[in-house]
Design brief:
By secondary structure, this protein is of the alpha/beta class. The chain has helices at residues 2-34, 71-85, 120-128, 130-133, 152-159, 163-168, 188-200, 213-227, and strands at residues 50-52, 60-66, 89-94, 106-114, 117-118, 138-143, 173-177, 180-181, 208-209. Helix content is 45%, strand content 18%. Bound molecules: flavin mononucleotide (FMN). Flavin mononucleotide binds at residues 67-72, 112-116, 143-146, 179-181.
């Protein structure tokens, strides 16, 4: 009798483990099968370090950004080009290559979100330049997958991502943009974790490029008069 009970337990344990392993494998395989690299987008991917000149105006804006895989770089470039179309000169540069803020009339700082925060070099940039930034019009933007979710609790969470930076320098405006996840650059277990994360964000389990060029351009138009007048 006791032998029979043990066998049943063993069977249930094995069946549970088998089912769990099967589900994980299917989920992982499902992720790999459905992931794309990247979806169609009209936004660039890269790490721009460019100067966009303007003859009409002597005013100049710095768009400084931090990006691990290039989607934030593309958003920074799009913001820079939109400002430049308004007749001001714009430098679009990675935060690490900005040494001096003199000569700029306004500064926009943006970063990819990793683990609920800006990348460390972006926060460091605000920290190091706090005194100068406090004397200029400043806008922040973040790029993260959680910006895709519209639930109240998620919006609150995303709104708190820049709490530390706000304390250092109060921005005139903040932009929150959905980013891109290049799944082929992730390990198997990272893909698995990200599939749950993307589901939580309401994006299903498909990686790819979710950046919205219209949202970036609309924000740029909205924020421009707050930076330059
Ligand atoms: C390891 C890792 C952690 C991430 N953590 C978050 C997060 O906490 N919240 C979020 O909204 N997005 C998160 N993301 C998504 C990235 O912010 C998004 O993919 C962004 O577009 C990446 O920008 P980049 O291509 O400029 O590096 C994470 C991505 C990775 C790879």
């Amino acid at each position: 009798m006791s032998h029979k009970t043990m066998s049943r337990r063993k069977f249930l344990t094995l069946a549970g483990a088998g089912l769990g392993a099967g589900m994980l494998t299917c989920c992982g395989l499902g992720w790999m099968l459905t992931s794309q690299e990247p979806l169609e987008t009209s936004l660039p991917i890269g790490f721009p370090d460019i100067a966009l000149g303007a003859v009409e105006s002597k005013k100049k804006i710095l768009v400084a950004y931090a990006s691990a895989n290039g989607s934030t770089g593309g958003i920074a470039e799009t913001i820079g080009k939109a400002f430049n179309e308004q007749g001001v000169a714009v430098d679009v540069r990675p935060v690490n290559s900005v040494i001096d803020l003199s000569g700029y009339n306004a500064v926009v700082i943006g970063s990819a979100i990793n683990g609920g925060k800006w990348l460390p070099e972006a926060t460091e940039f605000v920290n190091i330049n706090q005194e100068k930034l406090c004397q200029l019009p400043v806008a922040y933007f973040l790029v993260g997958m959680m910006a895709a979710s519209n639930s109240e609790s998620n919006r609150e969470l995303v709104a708190n991502f820049l709490e530390a930076e706000r304390t250092l320098v109060e921005p005139a405006a903040e932009g929150r943009f959905t980013g891109a996840l290049f799944v082929n650059r992730l390990s198997f277990f990272e893909k698995l974790g990200m599939s749950f994360f993307l589901t939580y964000c309401g994006l299903g389990i498909q990686g790819g490029d979710y950046r919205d060029v219209e949202a970036v351009r609309a924000w740029s138009a909205e924020v421009f008069p707050l930076l330059i007048n």
